[in-house]
Amino acid sequence: MITCGIVGVTGYAGLELLKLVEQHPTIHLEKAISDSRAGMTLSELYPWLQTGAQQLEPFQADALVGIDVLFLATPSGVSADYIRQLECFDGVVIDLSGDLRLPSNLYETWYGKPPVAAFIQTEAVYGLTEWSRDKLLTAKWISNPGCYATAVSLALVPFVQHDWIDPTNIIVSACSGITGAGKGLSEKTHHAKSNENVQLYKIHTHQHIPEIEQTLNTWSGTKATVSMSTHLLPINRGIMATITVQPNDDVSEDEWVHRLQNVYGDEPFIRVQQGEPEIKSVVGSNYCNLWVYKEERTNRLTIVSVIDNMQKGAAGQALQNANVRFGLEETLGLLSQPQYI
Amino acid sequence: MITCGIVGVTGYAGLELLKLVEQHPTIHLEKAISDSRAGMTLSELYPWLQTGAQQLEPFQADALVGIDVLFLATPSGVSADYIRQLECFDGVVIDLSGDLRLPSNLYETWYGKPPVAAFIQTEAVYGLTEWSRDKLLTAKWISNPGCYATAVSLALVPFVQHDWIDPTNIIVSACSGITGAGKGLSEKTHHAKSNENVQLYKIHTHQHIPEIEQTLNTWSGTKATVSMSTHLLPINRGIMATITVQPNDDVSEDEWVHRLQNVYGDEPFIRVQQGEPEIKSVVGSNYCNLWVYKEERTNRLTIVSVIDNMQKGAAGQALQNANVRFGLEETLGLLSQPQYI
Amino acid sequence: MITCGIVGVTGYAGLELLKLVEQHPTIHLEKAISDSRAGMTLSELYPWLQTGAQQLEPFQADALVGIDVLFLATPSGVSADYIRQLECFDGVVIDLSGDLRLPSNLYETWYGKPPVAAFIQTEAVYGLTEWSRDKLLTAKWISNPGCYATAVSLALVPFVQHDWIDPTNIIVSACSGITGAGKGLSEKTHHAKSNENVQLYKIHTHQHIPEIEQTLNTWSGTKATVSMSTHLLPINRGIMATITVQPNDDVSEDEWVHRLQNVYGDEPFIRVQQGEPEIKSVVGSNYCNLWVYKEERTNRLTIVSVIDNMQKGAAGQALQNANVRFGLEETLGLLSQPQYI
Amino acid sequence: MITCGIVGVTGYAGLELLKLVEQHPTIHLEKAISDSRAGMTLSELYPWLQTGAQQLEPFQADALVGIDVLFLATPSGVSADYIRQLECFDGVVIDLSGDLRLPSNLYETWYGKPPVAAFIQTEAVYGLTEWSRDKLLTAKWISNPGCYATAVSLALVPFVQHDWIDPTNIIVSACSGITGAGKGLSEKTHHAKSNENVQLYKIHTHQHIPEIEQTLNTWSGTKATVSMSTHLLPINRGIMATITVQPNDDVSEDEWVHRLQNVYGDEPFIRVQQGEPEIKSVVGSNYCNLWVYKEERTNRLTIVSVIDNMQKGAAGQALQNANVRFGLEETLGLLSQPQYI
Fold first, then answer.
1. Catalytic residues (chains A, B, C, D) (predicted)?
2. Distance CA B308, CA D157 (A)
């Protein structure tokens, strides 16, 4: 049995982790941590959870002895505060915020907050699971990827790795369900504002842009530059990234599909598909579905990637990373299917 | 008083026209035409309309004497059938379908149906109102633009006209509310399928792509090529087009906004805006709102255009074209504001 | 020309009033008042409004000279504060909050706040327009009815007035769109909470319950008691009240419809309908649609009433009351149709 | 290992059963049956299912040898046809339609179709699991309750069983998500019609009304009569029933809650709760949540019941019944939690 703690159980990612861990056969919830609601029980917070008697505790670094893995399901900045207190923590830390994803200079530019110590950030393993397994096995700090970054990077790494496309000419149009905006109250997420609406936000300034570029640069010989627009949709969950790229090879659409299937054919959570993409094909699950289409008129490719932002884009991938880190079957506790209807 | 007939009153565009004409001070509904529901009264069809006693008639070309303007709010293919019967009709025909928009060869390729006679299509004036006023004044046939085409073309014509961007490098990601898919029943529009979903459809094959290219070519020295992806959203109305282009001039974002305001400053229905775009800023109205942003990192521009697909993207623009055609004030009957909340 | 001021233009009812007044031929917006946003212009707040240059002012009772009618589109408690300062105001005050609706003792019980002076409340005319026209003609204070109260009272007054039903056995199940919960941020109205949800709230404690009973008591010989449950729905606008009552007369369903049509046949904003009720048949308009059905098995009646909570349930009825008060055509500026699709 | 067949896998209930069985440790899918799609594989129908290679077969009664339990996830009328062919089938039949729920005369009145043979209907056990366990153990035919009937009966059986309320004075206002209307295409479920709408339907004629009365009569000394209104909501899943009753005992609200907890305290799928009811507290799970409130002013009780119409209201309860029938742990395969966000 592996013991875990979840910090930030009142937020959406924390809640999703609670639900996933509750059904996990090996990883056991030892501590539910929340500074704002310490003292309450889980069942007071979420009356419909099964394991309700557990009491919420405030974050205390020296009370974490015996915890094998600590999930930080806290916002950027808050995670950094906790990370600074966790240097002496013996277990593994998986941070779902952006605080371990970028080197200090980039972090300050895109997040506008003080970064964690550079030596910690450098040591952290970026947990895009399918592309990080070896490094994850011995990681102390795991930086869980951003939701948009997961969707886009899983789609594009094969293309830049094999030099199939021009990495300087990548246009991403992405959209996300409202949980992507977090649980905090804001005008943007007031139902009467968000409903029957599409809101374009953080234009040219979304912090997942440098994260994607950094990931692509790891696998590409040429420095990647990505333009990404992010749209907030009136749905609860899910991300779709529609990506337009310029291929280097003049091969058929079938061949592009075939190439992608070759890369991902054995992956339990990635499905290369054909037909018309829809976000519902993954919502409620840890899958990433991918499609690739060739536009004969322009010789451009359209690559489409969909994930559930709360699962593969947050809590699901975090648990997948924990499974890998502790040598468990990678799919343990993660095989729920999309709700679909 | 100008008399009009509306063909296809059971469809969404027909209904929107009914509502708009009901509140128009000068254009009067003389005939409500529907082959499928002939004999019913308007109030049986729409109990909440004000002018309910009127009876629906079947389409009969020789019964249209005295009608000044006939709106064809019928699907592609159906409009073509009616158009073939309207050669001797004395009034003006405004077709909301795609049947007059493209030359025969392009039409056959993209619509997969038999085109109308070439001489009629050639004679038809493409009614992107803001850019077609002179020609509209004497038109017999007016081809009302497609919804996506309206949103994208209003955004891009100024940029290609002045050679501000590379017309061969235009990437459009567009999304539409469900009324854009029409009133016909389909799995795609069943609530349990479309709700909490995003569906990408007609990938690389949307019939508005050649329409946009044709419009841009009218104003550009260089042949335009456009890649456009179209997403079906779980909202009723509205289109947002997020357009990525490569500018030829190295000027500031403020200057780009300024240039666009210079072009459209006097237009009653076009508003160049700043801040974060949202589709709700136009839904329920005939406005087209535009934004332009410069991405300093990549030197690309992001241009955003939003319209209500049922108004500026269909019935609203059709009525605007009728106003122009008959020398009325262009905004007559079209000044309803966005519902917003 | 009649001049008006609107207090609370940042809220939903204030915004709806702004939009309605903007299209009203006779009533002219003289002052847009907001304590929280004083100094901004309307166009900074709502870039898509047409009359944007106007500047928001703070509430100052002595700056209202020359205003014919002042709309208080402010929450309960806030309206009371302003009302206390308006004793010397020369114009008409139309309060959209609950602060003038109930006598002091009931107000304190149901609102839990200090009431306005009893003599003001007593003098105020309760503006359920269709049933208050005579009194409205000379009113200084007009108390605009609550949204649920409008829907339910318009349905039931004819039945209790003619002693058609048992007024002690009235069960109302009502549901409302999210704008009914106001613009303030709350967990209840966070999209991720409210979407795909129904939330039952204020069980047995909704402040519109005594308001409905008071209205029915005005018209009934027997004291009415009403049980009402209120459900918050994931839609923006609209109220449906499904009302179950015990009839005193054993007549057919057709006769019940006929009786209701006799009462309301000449009303411009009330439509007695047949077929299946839907909330969309009024949303975006000032109409109240009514249906009555007889359950033969149980001899109960089901009466259904739908309104747009922002129009007939708030701003629309306020303007209708203003039209009556100033001797204008009652429908002026209020004939917009339901958006429907 | 228990083998099952599912008839009607293309419908919503069939799909939900497929998903539940896929994750069930003991019940194994042997046959996926669909007359309309025979020959396709499951993965062609639902590319995101895990067990995709299985081929759909047409219904053939003599090809079912070796199947332990056959789920009929087919519409009323269609189930009846199959049931007539299943007299010689050796296994257990669980019918999710209404075809086994009512005696012939009531069935003909409310369903308007020819009933199954009376001896089969009489033999069938009505599977409201919590109240039918003994009879289920030996049932050949199990009639799975209707969705509204499940929600309402679970709430009311304790009250009529103990004579706590007047069974002749029960008013139910119920609402359902759109999956309740089935997968068939209809104007009512076209997104542009259903979205932002509430549609009241089958007024006084819903076929679950006699089903509820029959269940209550089984447990009550006095014949029950129920009035129920059913509202179609723009959400995918979930039912809320808000029930108003007249109590016989003058006890406190706490005592009512206590009484209900006494009845259901040991039930794994029923939770008596306090606070404000919401439909989301069960959607995605097999739970039924119950609340009871006392209105002091009127001495009425409001009882609220919520279920997921696809789980506890259909496929979930069917599997729960199968678990009971075959002596398995009742919760097997049914402990998924509500999705909540």
1. 147
2. 51
**B109 and B152 belong to one structural domain:** no
Which residue among the candidates D4, D88, D147, D288 is catalytic per the annotation? Answer: D147
The pLDDT tens digits for D102-149 are: 999 999 999 999 999 999 999 999 999 999 999 999 999 999 999 999
Q: Would C314 be classed as within a structural domain?
A: no
Whether B171 and A175 lie within 8 Å, measured CB to CB: no
CATH number at residue A47: 3.40.50.720
pLDDT digits (tens, 9 = 90+) for A21-48: 999 999 999 999 999 999 999 989 988 8
**Alpha carbons A74 and A57: distance in angstroms, whole number:** 15
Minimum Cα–Cα distance from B178: chain D residue? D192
User: How many residues comprise chain B?
Assistant: 341
Nearest to C283 among D196, D225, D293 (CB): D196
D201 shares a domain with D105: no
- Shared domain for B41 and B154, answered yes or no, is no
* Nearest Cα residue to B128 out of B156, B109, B162: B156
Domain that holds residue C30: 2-123
Q: Does D191 touch chain C (CB under 8 A)?
A: no
Does one domain contain both A289 and A192?
yes
- Percentage of chain B lying above the pLDDT 70 cut: 99
Cα(A28)–Cα(B154) distance, integer angstroms: 57
Q: How far is A288 from chain B (nearest CA, A)?
A: 15
- Say if D215 is an interface residue toward chain B (CB within 8 Å): no
The whole-angstrom distance between A149's CA and the closest CA on chain D is: 21
CB–CB contacts below 8 A, A to D: 68
Q: Is the pLDDT of residue D322 over 90?
A: yes
Q: What token pair was written down for C334?
A: 């209020």
Please state, in angstroms and rounded to a whole number, the distance separating the CA atoms of residues C174 and C212: 13
Q: Are residues A179 and A114 in the same domain?
A: no
The CA distance from A281 to the nearest CA of chain D, in Å, is 6
Q: How near does any CA of chain B get to the CA of D14, in Å?
A: 15
Distance from C-alpha of D303 to C-alpha of D295, rounded to nearest angstrom? 11
Q: Please check whether residues A248 and A202 belong to one and the same domain.
A: yes
**Could you report the predicted ipTM of this complex, rounded to two decimals?**
0.96
Position B132 scores a pLDDT of 98
Q: Does C192 touch chain A (CB under 8 A)?
A: yes
D284 in contact with B, Cβ within 8 Å: no
Yes or no, beta carbons of D189 and B187 under 8 Å apart: no
Tell me the CB-side half-sphere exposure of residue D251, using CA atoms within 13 A: 13
The verdict on residue D270 lying in a domain is yes
| D147 flagged as catalytic | yes
Q: B51: pLDDT confidence band, cut at 50, 70 and 90?
A: low
- Cβ contact C83:C95 at 8 Å: yes
pLDDT tens-digit profile, chain C (341 residues): 999 999 999 999 999 999 999 999 999 999 999 999 999 999 888 887 876 778 999 999 999 999 999 999 999 999 999 999 999 999 999 999 999 999 999 999 999 999 999 999 999 999 999 999 999 999 999 999 999 999 999 999 999 999 999 999 999 999 999 999 999 999 999 999 999 999 999 999 999 999 999 999 999 989 999 999 999 999 999 999 999 999 999 999 999 999 999 999 999 999 999 999 999 999 999 999 999 999 999 999 999 999 999 999 999 999 999 999 999 999 999 999 899 88
Chains adjacent to B (≥3 CB pairs closer than 8 angstroms): A, C, D
Question: Please, what is the angle between helix C147-161 and helix C208-219, to 10°?
Answer: 20
Chain C interface includes A341 (CB < 8 A): no
Size of interface A-C (CB pairs under 8 A): 52
Put simply, the chain B residues between 217 and 276 with a CB less than 8 A from any chain C CB are 236-237, 271, 273, 275
Longest alpha-carbon distance in chain D? 62
Pick the residue from chain A with its C-alpha nearest to B193.
A341
What is the largest distance, in Å, between two alpha-carbon atoms of chain C? Answer: 62
Q: Decide if C83 contacts C116 (C-beta within 8 A).
A: yes
